[in-house]
Amino acid sequence: MHLEIPFWNQCNNNCVMCTNPPNFRREKPIDLASIKKYLKWKIGGEEDNIKSIYLTGGEPTMQPNFLTIINYLQKKFPVSRINILSNGRRFFYEDFTKACIALGKVSFIIPVHGPDSKSHDAVTRIKGSFEQTLGGIENILSLRRPDQEIEIRLVATKFTHKNLRKTLDSLLKKFPTIHRIVIIFLEYEGQAVENLKSVRLTYSDFGSDLKELMPYLRKYKNIRLYHLPLCTVSEEFWPFVWRTLGEDEVAYLNKCDKCKVKEFCLGIHKKYLELFGPKEFRPVQTSHALKISDNYHHPIISVEKKS
Ligand code: SF4
User: Fold this and answer.
1) pLDDT range class, residue 27, cuts 50, 70, 90
2) 307 and 182 fall within a common domain
3) 21, 100, 230, 296: which has the fewest Cβ within 10 Å?
4) Residue 132 pLDDT grade (very low, low, confident, very high; cuts 50, 70, 90)
5) How far is residue 252 from each of residues 32, 202, 259, measured CA to CA in Å?
6) Could you please report the per-residue DSSP string of the chain?
7) For residue 259, how far is its CA from the centre of ligand 1 (angstroms)?
């Protein structure tokens, strides 16, 4: 079981496709007492079942009590991995990175929004954020312990999708030892809905961009695709697709009952359906042989043409 702890009260970026509501920032920091209260409400009695913890935002590293909170979580959940979803900017400061690395069983998930400062900073709306984020990734990679992983996320939006190939290419050249790169179709929530005109991207638009990325997917085994219903991409991409949205966030259409891969498909984000309707989704009648895993989140391992 995964546990998400949202630190939505602060962020030092101002991303155009942020899934938080526009006025999510609050002056009051999150302290240990409120974390304990949250845990009791969220997982009271199920502590032993928590495999991994995700600290999300806002920006978790902006909390004045950040290191104290992680220390507490490590003691309370000694076998769980703690994943820090961060914009990476505070890791630009070596002292802070060293303090986080010293905490132990933590991993890092950091989004990058373009191949250069112009494109990245246009998304974060903070000048200089690209330089700090990339510097942060560099610091983590050079200081990390062997069991501490780092994942870079590329969120596909109207702003970023045309640059995805370039961004992926430059990141793989700059950080060849990166553990994982995840390309995520944006979630229409919070400010992403408020800023719909600027971030608007449909699965149909995205499908054609993906074709350019196939050579990278074939070459690097550590690239994943998140938030994609299977019928929105061609079969060759299915082994890279992970089932990543919560059951309460998605819906299936009546026509999905005729789909041969429904049991492996994450479904359609409810807000996407509300905004763009059901036209793009078509039941799949594949004749290919699928190799299936027992991992719920990564069901299709390979797709082979039947001879
Ligand atoms: S038709 Fe429905 S179940 Fe099938 S791939 Fe598309 S969204 Fe998923």
Assistant:
1) low
2) no
3) 296
4) very high
5) 39, 17, 10
6) -EEEEEETT--S---TT-SS-TT---SSPP-HHHHHHHHHHHHTT-GGG--EEEEEES-GGG-TTHHHHHHHHHHHSTTSEEEEE--SGGGGSHHHHHHHHTT-SEEEEEE---SSHHHHHHHH--TTHHHHHHHHHHHHHHH--TT--EEEEEEE-TTTGGGHHHHHHHHHHH-TT-SEEEEEEPP--THHHHTHHHH---HHHHHHHHHHHHHHHHH-TTEEEES--GGGS-GGGGGGEE--S-GGGEE--GGGGG-TTGGG---EEHHHHHHH-STT-------SEEEE-S-TTS-EEEEE---
7) 6
Task: Return the structure tokens found at 16.
Answer: 């155009």
Domain enclosing residue 101, as ranges: 2-188+220-226
Domain CATH for 46: 3.20.20.70
**Domain C-terminal end among 197, 226, 255:** 226
In the predicted model, what is the mean pLDDT of the chain?
90
- The CA 264 to ligand 1 mean position distance, Å, reads 9
Pocket test for ligand 1, best of 233, 241, 249, 252 (most atoms within 8 A of CB): 252
Centre of ligand 1 to C-alpha 193, Å, is 23
Q: Which atom of ligand 1 is nearest to the CA of 259?
A: 4
Global pTM value: 0.90
